[in-house]
Structure formats: structure tokens, C-alpha cells
Structures
1.
Amino acid sequence: MFVNNDVKNAMAMEERHVIKLSDPDHPVILSTEDLHVYYGKKEALFEGDLEFASNQITALIGPSGSGKSTYLRSLNRMNDRIATVTGKIMYRGVDINQPSIDVYEMRRRVGMVFQRPNPFAKSIYDNIAFALRLRGVTGKHKLDEIVETSLKQAALWDQVKDDLNKSALALSGGQAQRLCIARAIAIKPDILLLDEPASALDPVSTGQLEDTLLSLKEHYTIIIVTHNMQQAARISEYTAFFNQGRVLEYDTTSHIFTNPSVQVTSDYVSGNFG
Amino acid sequence: MKTTEQLEAKLKRRSKAAKLEIWGRLVSLTALMLIVAVVVAIIGFVASKGIATFTSNHVSLWDFLSGKSWNPGVNGANGKPEVGALPMIVGSFLITILSAIVATPFAIGTAVFMNEISPNKGAKILQPVTELLVGIPSVVYGFIGLSVVVPTTRAIFGGSGFGILSGTCVLFVMILPTVTSMSADALRAVPRYYREASLALGATQWQTIYKVVLRAATPGLMTAVVFGMARAFGEALAVQMVIGNAALMPNSLVSPSSTLTSVLTTGIGNTVMGSLQNNALWSLALVLLFMSLVFNLIIRLIGRKGRLQ
């Protein structure tokens, strides 16, 4: 959703409710400051600054075109060649939105899983070993070990352990998406960004995926964009509600879903939106 | 009751749309039949003429394919006509393979630049240039070959300058745009999410191109190369102008030699229909036709294999 300046000023008067995090057990690992995203001259995101707690799941919800995917893709600079991103993205105290940042090294720490399961046309094993080999991990023993632990963490090992050399394209949608998660965590990132990972999956696969994510937060900070509000309610600790390029409300998930502070959020989560 | 009958009559009456439908199907079917008829007629004609060398002139197929001297008007020492096509077959294959080997890296490199590295410049500059190169008539390529490439070859390697090397240079430029634009199509067909997946895993752009995009596009790239080879194999005029047209086994890349097409274009006007000289040329044409079918078959096989992956 692109808005002109008049609408923007009018909207600035609207109520917003964005909390600052203060949980000593889960310190802030990633935050944005004054982040703006432009597609050409059109501003797709403003007033979208959030803080993310480590080893927690944060859900980004909102209608289509609200800027939530744009925001997520900016966090590991996947928007670099598509959009102009200004402002700071602070990761453990370092601004990773500077030109001098090596984006390839940064993306090793901030991994991403996409809406559509996108395994390479390679074997299951080679899919997971791909990023490791790029980083010079070549020992067969070491690779075997990482492939196994990654698949176990993604809850896929039991289903594919005898078929590691078969093509990843033969997997079902849910399995393929968990393979993508295994592939992303094989390089041990700090943060895992997921862009509507379950939107192409059936309910059973979605349930399995959610269980996987819940077990992963012990090791990783997870930020997930979702259209499915029940999903956000089920798995996340914090929820941000995006609308027309800005965050209208950010709070604990229970607050957003049971007692939202902003009327628009309330309308959206109760299905009275639009 | 009456309304039911009326409805039935109305539904059964051919409407204007239904008539148009039949008419349209008829037109496209006729067009298809015509093309099939033309192809069958060409193959039939070339085959009947080409086989005459072996049936009415009693040349053995083996002598034709393996004989090294080409002189259809003269009988050799053993009393048989000298219609050994091996020098031309070797010349055709050599020039085809060499030009494909030289053109492929340039074509794929250009396609990668156009598609992956600088899509903007690629679309604005390289795409039109490539299309322009496709449109230049082969006689122009041949003429440039004759006045630039041949003297250069002569200056560097000595001899006359005519030969396989000059032919390769000319064909390289001629097939480059075809292979380039088909390679670019192959790269374009690689889904964007492959690239995103690779980049999100921390791969650099070059790693993404090399390990993901080119691998995924391999069947398409192979098709592009084979297509270029088919074009090189069938090109006549430009090659004829620079190869020297000596029906000899090529003993070096800079000695005058010939290809199937160059012998055909120089010889076909100078022979009498029905004579051995004429039939032998038709046999060469049959070999050419057969080879282009083989190239087509290879392209289809690669395409099918690509889909299965």
C-alpha cells in the first residue's frame, strides 16, 4: 500500500501503541531505527520500528500490502537490489544497514525462509550441504553430522534419513518447507526470518511446521510474517500489527489478541477489517 | 410441451458461434496439413534423389561415407566413380564443433551479464544488439570474412588464409547471437526463488550464478548450444566464401577445405539432372538433412530430460 503525504500526515494523528522491550531473560537482539523503505519514489514503509527479543518468536501480521514482508526482507537486506532502505538496523549493537557491511557474512547470521518452499533441484543432502560447502566445510564426516542435526532440528530426519540422496523436489510441500528450514539452520544463524512459511501448506503440515518453530526458539530468534492470525496467536510471544506501511500496534501476543489498544488492530484480529 | 420442443430446436440449431468454430478449426487444420505435406515432399524428394547414387549408379554407401577423394566426374584407379564424401563430412563437423566451442563461453557469459549482473543495461543495449546480429544477412558475414578474416589469417598463419579457421571465425560470429539469446531465455526460465534461496543462505552473487542458476539452466543452455551447432552445420553461403572450397581432407586448420554445404552451393548449378555428379550432390544434401534431423532429435531429448528433472 502506497500512500501520499496528506494521507500520511492524517495517519500520523492516529493512535499507535508500540511497546519497548524490557525482559532481562530475552534481551533485544535486533531492532530498527527510523527505517524507511522506498520502491522507486514510493514509500512502502515508515514508522515501522520494532525491537525483537532473543530466543522468542515475534509475529508480524497485517493485511496484504501493509509492509510487513517488505520490513522482514529489509532485515537481512534481501531488498538491496529492489528497494531503497534508509535508517538503521541494529543487530547486537552493529548497524547492518551500512554499505560497508558484508551482506553475505551478515546473511549467514540472519537467515531467511520464504513463502514458497524453494529447495534446489539437488538431493536432500546437497540442499543442506550447499551453504556449508560455500563456506569451505568439505569434510564428509563433518557434513554428515551437520546434515543430520539440521534435519533433526527441523523434524524431518525420521522421514528422509534413508532418502538423503534423492531429489529434494520429490518432497511434499510441508517436507520441502522443513527442508528449507533445515537448510537455513545448517549454517547456525542467530536469527531466522520466515516470510509466510505456511501459506502454501495444508493444515497438518502447518501444525508440524509450527511445532518445529516452537522447538527451534531455544536456539534461534524467530521473526515470522503470517496471514494466519491463529498461527500468530499459537506460536508467538510478541505480535506487531502492520497497516499501510506502519506498525500500529506492537505488544505481547496475548495483549494484541485479547485486549488490543488500537481500534484498527481490534477490528483486524476480530475479522471486522475493511 | 411446446416450450420443451422449442427449446430443443433452439439448442440443436447450429449457432453462428458454432459455425465459426468449425470454420476456424478447418482453416488451422488446412494450414497444418499443408506444412506437413511440404516437409514430407522435401524429405521424399531429397531422399529419392540422394538414394539414386547408390541404387542407379551403384556406389556403395560405405565408399561414399568413407572415401577420401571427391571427383564425381572421374573414375578412380579401381574403376569406380570417386564420390568419397568424408572430407566434406569431416569439414562440416570440424567447423561446427570448433565454432560451438568458441562461441559457447562468450554466449553464456553475455547471457549471464544480460540476465544476472546488469539486467537494465542488458535489456537496453545487449538485447537489441543481439537481435541486430541475428538479422544481418549471411552474405554480409561472408563478405566481411573474405575481406577481413581471410587476410588476417593469411598474415598470421601463412598460406592462402582460406580454410577451417576462417570459417570458424565467421561462424562464431554468426551463431553467437542465436546461442546468446537462447541462453538468456534459459537463464530467465530459472525461477527467481532459486536465486533468493541461495542469496538468503549467504551465497554471493557469483556463487549463486555458478552453483545454482547455471546448474538449473543446464538443459536449456545445452539446447542453445546444439541449436547454434545446427545453424553452423547448415550455413552455406558465408562458409563457402571463406573456406577455400577444395574437396580435400583438411590436414590443417588453415588449408583450403570444404563442407557439405559449400560443395553443394558451388556444384549444384554445374551438373546435369540425373547424372552421377548431380546425384552425388543430392546424396550430400541427404546427409545434411539427416544431420539436421539428428540435431533436432538431440534438442528434443535434452528438453525432455530437463523436464524430468
Note: The domain at 83-308 of chain B is CATH 1.10.3720.10 (MetI-like fold).
2.
Amino acid sequence: MLPLLLASLLTLASTGAVLPPGPPHELPDPLAQAMHAAALQDFPAALQLIRSVESDSPPVIRERDFCLALVLLSAPPITPGRTNEAAALFQRVREADPADDLGIAALFYLARIEQTHRSPPNLDEAARRFEQLANSHPDNWFGQFAILKLASLELNRADRSKPGVERVDYWLRRGESITDPVLLRNFCWTMGDAVIRHGGSLERALEIYQKGEAIGYSRFDIRALMIVRIHNLAYELGRTDLAIEAAQRYIDEHSRSTIVQFFRDRLRELAATEEERSQL
Amino acid sequence: MKPDARPIPGPPDSGKWSRRLGVGIIVFMLGGAFLQVAFRETLPDDGIPRIRFAHTLLHGGLREALDAVARDYEALMEARGTPVRVEQLAVPDRTYQQWLRTQLVGGTAPEIVMNQANLSTSMVARYLVPVSDRITEVNPYNEGTPLEGLRWRDTFFDGMEYGGFVFELAEHHGIPVSASTTRIFANRRILDEILADPANARLAERLGPEGIPSSYDAFLELCEAARRLGESTGRVIIPIAGSDTNAALIIDTLVGNQTSRMLVHEQPLFDFRVSNDQLRLDMLTGERLVVDELYRAGLQLAREVGRQMQPGFIQQRREDATFLFTQERAFMIAASVWDAASFRSIMGERFDVVVFPIPTPEPGHPRAPFSYGPPTELGVFPSGVFGLVNIHSHERVERALDFLRYLTSHPGQTTFVRQSGWLPAISEVDPAPGTEAFMPRLEGYPLGPRLHEISPDHRRVFLTRLHLLTAPQDGLERFIESFEPAFLEEIVPSMQSAHRNALTATNQQDTLIGAAWWLATRHPDHAFDGSEKLGLLVDSSHPNEANTLFFQAELQRILRRSRE
């Protein structure tokens, strides 16, 4: 009786100390609360909540394994042992059903573990798994995410020579299958940078950034950055109308930015050029 | 025990009793812990709930200003029939971080804590309530003011795009209460003495009736005049009080004023930016000198102004510089608006101050020709962030949140800025009389890269050689000779360290992305919008990772080539 009482007191005391107040309490089960905590980077609370889930139901155990593996990747202390444990859990999730959404997500994370969570990384194995995922599930969110990750992995392999513009073109073609707006806008950003850095044409970079900007980025500073790039590329390419439109839009939408004066100067410069043209 | 040793006799069944006692103590303590958690709502003797907030704002007049807002709020709550008491805990800056961490881990933290980079990202996530959803609600305390009906976040002058936002977490974890700018403070009594000297008639004419230098050269002239005044009267008058903090405010502005040209002429990704990685890579490959003509011009200015500070200033702390200034042993000091009230309270009626922005050279200046113009302060955003601690009950957190609504409402901020002399965090609130000079300067240009700020180790390299820069003879050349090789040596380790940190952060975001995806697919209808969070997280992590991978690969190729 006494041990039971002590255990209850401990559980109540500790749970009271880890649960954040407010909406998370309304989530229906400890796994949901754990994932809410993990999404807000509160890994110790997430671990505690996941470990409190007890069930004999294989689907519940599989969900728990997936959530636990996710949190083990980031919860301190991050050790090779924990990374191995996470990989084993993802593997188990995948083996139970490689074709459902959890099994597909597990393969994505197995690739990420090889790419970036292990030291040293196994880039060939990571690329093989991303490739497998992208080919087998091109319509799945993680299948499309795999193309995004694969492109940046393959274009930035330190163990190979710097890729030329033809490799960038290859990845641009592969990315045409991405339909999810979040992934597509990030693909545009990554590939716009890659085109510039690997010697592609500025027109192509501009076109790619414009495509990403049209989808719309969630963060204020990224939205601003894209307008700056579009303006500067248009300016460089002599596309005055677009340069003026982007500069004006930047001034209107980001009037508290420190670089606003650069745009005011540019507008003056571009207007003067227009006048000179009309005088000719 | 020796063979003939006997146990010390004790009362019958003593072992049994001590075990019972031990278990009793454990049960008592656990019960206490349980009761503490379960009945945290226990009210004080007067039955009125408390809201406690902790901060480090010991600057003169600040506690009084926060008290005034708290009393107004209490009166308002009393009139509504829901009385509360608001108590502030002012903790010295030097001990705050340790104190705060102990309070949070020990479960004794107040409901509201100030977080000015005092907590790591993981502690913010662990202990501070995310408020992104709450700041989209209307602030009811703005009723009848020009801000009536606006979402709370839209009442802040930056729309809370930066203030309170934690980029790594893609969440708001606090509410900013003020804003700050940097100014030069000059002792008016010494200034009047300088201007009264007929030998300074030309200078007086240049400064105008307010005695404010409108150009960099006039500022230097003023420094020299202060030095001469000290020499001629036998008093110690240091033209500018320097310290590790105060000197950096001027030096960084002057250097950044010259290097801002890089933002337009070098931007490799066409975005008016040059990343630290790009600068370091170009230096490693020899495509860029460490000290190019822009940085050299900035260093020349740093030398000129540094020579106006007391010897050894870089080893001194802010308190030392404040002491020199308030004791009238230094004529000027660079400080933030937050220090203004402190100066006033220390100086009392002894002397008044003249306040002006840090003067920078005009475009085409003979010694520093690269300036585009004065630096803008458009980048100033609301700071002094107060977070809500999540170890408390929902009710207490809501009560504390309501006080923050009032503190950052039109009436709350009006009281706050009038009493403190600080700048408001929200729009439509007039600055206190006499503080107009601190309002951010909206015209001008951004500062360019300060190369010595590329990494903590580069900063150390810079600071430990600054004495060479301010030496009387050949300072700039001797500084560069010592600085460049030491700077280059730190490039590879600093890049590797930056890449490791960046990839560690994106590794963590793998978990955040997975968790948000899980919530978006398993609980799509819940108030926590997993899909929106997912978009924020991918936007925040993937481009950073791709960028890091690019520079990591470039660095490794360079290192491989140099080994071959």
C-alpha cells in the first residue's frame, strides 16, 4: 500500500511540474501532449509523457515507438546509444508496415539519421534511403521532402568535386514532382541559391525565386529576403519594371527594415535612367 | 568489527523504529511536495491573489515606473471586483541568470520573468509559455485609445515580428515592454566651459546653440577641446569614458558605417547581405584581404575615437565607465537610453546632459570615404521581454498574461514611459518629455559587417590587440600586422564550430518537424495548428541546413586542396 501511495504522490507531483498550462492539457492523450511538448522543444517533458504510455495494442505501441524515436534524436544527453535506439525503433515501425504514413515517415528519419545524426555520417546510405523513399512514395509528404533533402545533400557533397550547372539542372528536373507548397517553396529557395552558386544563369535563379515567393513563405524575414533577391536580380538583368515593382513592394511591406534606404536610392536611380531614356 | 566487539546496546526494536521514522519522513516530504503542487493556488493571508514578476531593471526610476503601472492595474482590478496584488522582484544583473535558473528548476519562479537572453533556447521551451496564439487577440485595455480593436501584436511598433519571437522555436515566448537606442551623453557643465573659452569660438560656431556636433570631425574637435580644458585647469577630464561595453558601441558603429558598402557591392546571393561564412571563405582562398580598404577605414576611425578614451579602457566594465562619467572625470559616454535614468539618479542636480547620436563621417570624408550616410535605427525592435512561467496553474498564468496586456497597453505604456524615461514598445504612445532625442532615427543606412564580430574567438583576437590600435605611433599598421595572422588562424576552427552548431540546431528541428507532422495528421482539428507549425519549421530549418552544407563542403574542399 505504502509503495503504491508513494508512487502515486511522485507521479502526481512530477506530472504537475512538467505539464505546460493551457491548451496542451486539452489534447486527448499523453502521446498528443508529448508531441505538443516536443514540437515546442520541451524534450524532457515529452520523454516523460511518452514513457507513461502503457498499452498492449500493437498500433498504439507503434505510434509510441515512433514518437519515442523522434524525441530520442534530440533529448539530452544525445549519445550514439540513443541514436541507435531511435534507429532501431524507426526500423521496427517501418517493418510493421512500410507503406503506411508512419512507415514512410520512419524511412525518412532513418535516412536523416545516416545523413546528419551519426558521426561520422554515412552519406551514401542516407542518399540510398532518400532515393528509395522518393521513388516509392512520390505523392507522400515525406517522399517529396526526401527529394528536397537529397538535392541539397548531393549538391553539397564534400567528398566529391563541386558539381556543375548540369547537376543543378538535373535536380531542378527531379524537383518538378514536388507539389506540397511548403516543400516546393523551400525547394525553390535552395535551388535558386544553387543556380547562382554553381554557375547557372541569373534569369533562371530569378525565375525560381519568383516561383517560391508566389507561394509565400511563413516567416516575415524570409518574405522580405525573397523580395530583395528578386529586386537585385531584376536590377542586374536590366529588368527595370520588375526591379521597380519589387523595390516599391519592399518599401511598402517592410518599411521598418534597415535596408529600406537602399531601395529608395535604387528607385531614384532607376527613375533617372528612365528619364534619360525618354530624352534619347 | 573486531571479534570481541559487541554491538552498542540500544532500546528494544530501535532498527524497526528508525525504519518507521525514515518512512514517515519520506511520506511527510512527498506529501508536502504533493500538497505544494496540488494547492499552488493557496492565497496569501489577505485572500488576494498575487502576480509576481522578476527582472534586472535596476536602472534609476525603473522600479518606480513599473510600480506605478502595477498600482494602476491593481486599482482597475479592484474596481472590477477582482482584486490582485502585483509584486516585483528586482534582481542584480550579475546574479540574475543563476537565480532565474535555480527558481525555474526548483519550481519557485514567479509567474513572470524577464528573459533577455538569460535562458538557453531549450530552457525557454521548457519553462516559458508560448504566446503566439494569444498575441493575435485584441488587447482590451486599449479600448478608447488609438489602438482600440487592434490585435495585441499589431499594437507593437514591429508587429512583434522580432520582439519576443524565438527564431529557433518559431514561436513567441514573451512580451517586450520597451525599446532602446544608443546615444552619446555629454556633460553640459563641461560643454559650457569649453564653449565659453574664446579659443574654441570656431568650434562653438560649428556646434550651434545646442552644442551638438553634427559631423564626425566636429565630434573629434570637441574631444580635443575637452582634453585641453583638463590640461589647462589641472583637472582629470577624459574626453570619452570607455569600457568593454561602452567603447564597442562607438567602435562597431564607426566600422559598420564604412563596411556597409560591402552590402551593395559584394552581395553574393543578391540580397544586400554578406554572410560570415562567405567572408571567411574568401579570406581563406585569398580572394579577400582580412583588412581591406573598407575595414581599414573603419579601424582608422576606431583608432581616432579610441585614443579619446582612458588608457586600458577595454579591460574596464560598464560600471567603471559610468563612474568616470557621473563623477565628471569623463566628458562623454556612449550608452543606451536605458542608462539615461540611471545617470540622472546618480548625478542628481549636479549637472545636466546633452544627448546626440554617434556621429559618423559624411560620404567622401578624406580619411574614411566609404560611408553612405548616417546609420539608421530602423532595426531597433521592442526588447525587455517578459515571459510567462509554465510551472504555475492555468489560472495564474492567465492572470499574469492579463497584467502584461495592461503593461503594454496604451495607458500602461504611457505611465511607464513618463515615469521611466524609456522608449515605448508600442505605437501611438508619445515619448516622455525630454526623451525625444532617444527616438530611433528612421533615415539612414544599415551598418555593414564588423569582421571582428564574426565569431567569439575573432572578437577576442580584436580586443586583445586593441591597445596596439590606440598606441600613439603607427597604431594602425602595428595593429594590422598583429591582427591579420591571428585572425586568419581562427577562421577554420570558427567555421567548423559554426557549422557544428548550425547542424545541431537543424538536427533538433527534425524532431520538431516530426512532432508537428504527427499532430497535424493525428489531431488536425486541434487548436494547436500542426500544419502551420510545420510550414514555419521547414522554412526555418531546411534553407539554413542547405546553406551550412554548402559552406561545409567548400571548406573541406579548400582544406583537402591545401593538404595535397
Note: The CA atoms of residues 51 and 183 of chain A lie 32 Å apart.
3.
Amino acid sequence: MSLDKATVRRIATLARIEVPDADLEATAAQLSGILSWIEQLSEVDTSNVAPMSGGIDMESISTKPRWREDKVTDGGQTEKVLANAPDPQDGGFFGVPKVVE
Amino acid sequence: MSYIIKGDTGDWEVVIGLEVHAQVISKSKLFSGAPTEFGAGPNTQVSFIDAGMPGMLPVLNGHAVEQAVRTGLGLKAKINKRSIFARKNYFYADMPQGYQISQYDMPIVGEGTIVLDMPDGTSRSVGIERLHLEQDAGKSVHDQHATKTCIDLNRSGVPLMEIVSKPDLRSPEEAGAYLKKLRSILVYLGTCDGNMEEGSMRCDANVSVRPVGSTELRTRCEIKNVNSMRFVMQAIEHEAKRHVEVWESGGAVDQETRLYDANRNETRSMRSKEFAHDYRYFPDPDLLPLEFDDAYIAKIQATLPELPDDKKARFIKDYGLSAYDAGVLVAEQENAVYFEGVAKGTDAKLANNWVSTNLFGLLNARGVSISESPISAKNLGRLVQLIADNTLSSRMAKEVFEMMAADGKDPDTIVTERGMKQITDTSAIDAAVDQIIAANPDKVAEYNSGKVQLMGWFVGQVMKATQGKANPGMCGELLKKKLG
């Protein structure tokens, strides 16, 4: 599978990564290379295999995953939550550039 | 009655589907142990998971699963014993992970049904497409600071049920009836408090139009986050008219997300449509498939309360109420419980009149809910008994009702204290009647010469003479006998 420049530009926008126009061609070639490497997987016949949604085969594990009890065990740590915030605001808010729709 | 928009080229009908986000009643969040309580100080209910810190892993809240299954059962829907949590990817300042954990092609609940009770007494069945579990985002506060948006993550990670209807609704009124019924069912089930002001129930509406008679589905617009039933209905009405204008002027409606502005009663485009629906869903690798067995579902099924539709049917059958009256009583669970408290062991129709007219009137006038009623169901039930067994006339009962509302006393005490017992003893009324007839020979003569409408005046005089305690029916009978 090979990607064109327009697709790379779109993927970059969705991922909020800046790719200068001059780099688009090279990036397209690299991403296409990665995709064709992964495409080798399609050589395996999976017509009789149910799709998995993760790395664990649920049939193979003897104990089912435990759910959390509905108890309050966390929170009340505003300073810690905001500790790495670049622009905390009065009252305990994160500050971000104005988002107006 | 169908809802038609008259256009220049002909008649149009509106096609509506609703997506309701209902906050699950739970103590803690969907994937963390932080509290969900409304109204706490900014960022005081945030775990590192809710803040999207690297390396934090979500752990599923079992109670939220139970609530979703309970809701699915209440909507008579298919429960999926295996479902998958997926990541819905988009960037927004109030969603620190960069994705929302939701469910995509394998939701926990599949197709179901809601029966709408329309104001004209008819009912109509509307399909539910699905219900899935997902986490809420944080809150953006735009008016706190001139150049910044302030972010509060307390709501981040709060469990939501997104309930999606089929595009079965055909008028703003039906959309309103759908929301009302869904809210009622959720509150009965105890899975959502239904409080639209606090945002525990939020609604997005998908709206499109088509010429009457056509079965096509034209391009729809999604109207986001309309936060009252009235606004949902207004927004749909406005949006449908806008579509008709666009189509009739030779244009085409763009598929987009729009925001309803209640002040101006208009919708406007909200997000750039180019990327609006490119969420790149994929199964969340941090979470295992959500699985449970039939026994788990059966256990929840066994704890379901009597739901509004069943209660309504029972009220019609057991109490002989009309479909309309029963529908009004069961819409709010507390009202239904109160009514049954009143109706116990007395005339049910009379009980309904006193609850629906007198009590609801009193509560409305005072602006209080039924849980704050100054009159208990037991006392109102006793008042109804006193009317039914002729101890009180309905006029006296209204007076007693006012006194009960004023001081919360029980009706027997009031009746005894004030000596208000209705006189049903013939001899006592007899004396009063004789006295009135003796004192008013001119009126008697008028009556006997054919002026029969004077009967009302005579009854009034007897009532006055007995301080309103005489049974009006018996007065009438005795007077007729003696005058005739």
C-alpha cells in the first residue's frame, strides 16, 4: 500500500503533527514502507479465526477479569493533578488558549 | 396527527433520531476511583487516569456495567454478553487522553423499544438502535478569563450511557414525548437521575427532511447538546424548516454538526466538517472485552422494578382509571406511589381526582415536589374515605383540605375539633327544612306556581341554617317532598 502526499498531510493534521511540505514526499515513502511491511501479515490465512480485540485470548484464561467495586478511592489531589500544568489558573483550573466554537 | 412543513414545492415531513447521553448513577467513575458528585471545586475529583497521565491504566467499574444492563432490560433490548471498548480519537482541550473510551461496533446493548404516550392519549412505538457505555469529557469554562479557557476535569471519566434511537420520530412533539418517556424509565430504574439542568441527561438530535410520501433518508444534521426538552423541540422545528428552504432553493444540505442558540432560536455550523467524523475508532488495548453470562443478566432482571408501561396498565385495570389519567400518574414514580397510598381502601377515581387536581394544584402553587407535600398520602386517603362514606360533603372536604395543607393535621382531628361532620340524620335536616318553609311563605307560593328554579335557593338556605353541614342531596329530597 502506498500513500500519496495528500493522505500524509491529512494524517499529520489528524495527529496534530507538523510536517513541512518539503518533507511530505519522504514521509510518504517511509510510511508506505512501514505499511507494506505490516501487509505481510495478510499472507496468513485467517478465514477460520475469530477477530481478537486485544492481546489476550479470553477463552484461554481461567479467571475472568475482575471489575472494580463502585467505591471512591481517588481524587482530592488538585495540586498533584495540576503540578505539571504549564498554565494553571486561579481556583484550580488548567489554563489553555481560548477555545471558542 | 402528522407534522407537515408546507413548502413552496409541496409538503415535507421531518425525520428525527435522538442520541441521549445519560449519566449513570454511580459513586465513582467508569475507569477510576475518583468521585462523580456534582458541584465540587474544580479538579478536586480527578485521578491520574482521568487527567490522562502517561502509564495509567483504566479498571472497569462493575456497577456501571450493571446499570447499563439494567437500562437495556428496561428498554426491552437485546443484551450483548460480549462487547468491546474502543477509542474514539479526537483532540479537544477538555479531553486530556486525546481519545474517549467508548464502544463502537460491539455495544453492550442492542436493539430495543420505547412506547410513547402522546398527549391525545394514543401510544406509538419507537425503536432503540443501541446503548453503549462511554466516559464523559471534562468541562471548558470560557468566561472565567479574557484570553484563556479554563479546564475542569471533574467530569472527565464519569460513566455515561449513550442511548441512540432509530430515525423513527416524525415531529418535535414526538421527540419531546420520547425524551419524557426515556427519562421516566431511567428514573424508575435508578440508573440516571434525569436532571437536565445539571447535565445528567443531554441530547443530540439528528434531523433531516423529505417530501411526504418518500421513504428516502436525506442528508442529516446533528444538533449538539440541547439541554431542555423545550429547546430540543424548538431546535428540531427550526432545523427542519432550514432544510426545506435549502432543498427548495435548489441547494443541498451538508452533513455537519450544528449548535442550537436558544436566545436567537437558530442553529449554526459548529465544527469544520472536513474532519468531523474521522474518529479512527479501534479497540482499546488497555481493556479486555467486556463479557458476562446469562446468569448475570438474569440476576439483574430479577431486581427490575415495575416500569411505567406496566404500572399504567395495572392502574387502568385495577383502579379503573382512564389511559390518560393513568399516564399522568405513572410518569413520575413518586406520584404513582403517592396515588397508591391515597387509593388504598377507598374509591380510586375519587382518589385520582383529589391527587391530580387538588394536590397537584397545591404543589404547583407552592412550587414544591411531591416529596415535600404538606399532606401525607395516608391523610389524603383518609379525607377521600370521609367523602366516600358521606361524613363530609365535597365542599366541606375542600375546607378540610385547606386546613390540612396549612398545618399538616390529619382530617379526623380537624373534623372532630371543628365539629364538621356532615348531617345525614333526617330529623336534624327535617327541622331546618320546616323552619325555612315556615319563614318564607312568599317563596313557597312562587315555587308552587311553577318557579321550580327556586329549589336552589331553598337548598342554600338549609345549608346556611346548618352551617354547611347538611348533606345537599338529602336537603333537596326533603324539600321536594315537603314543598310538593
Note: The beta strands of chain A are 94-97.
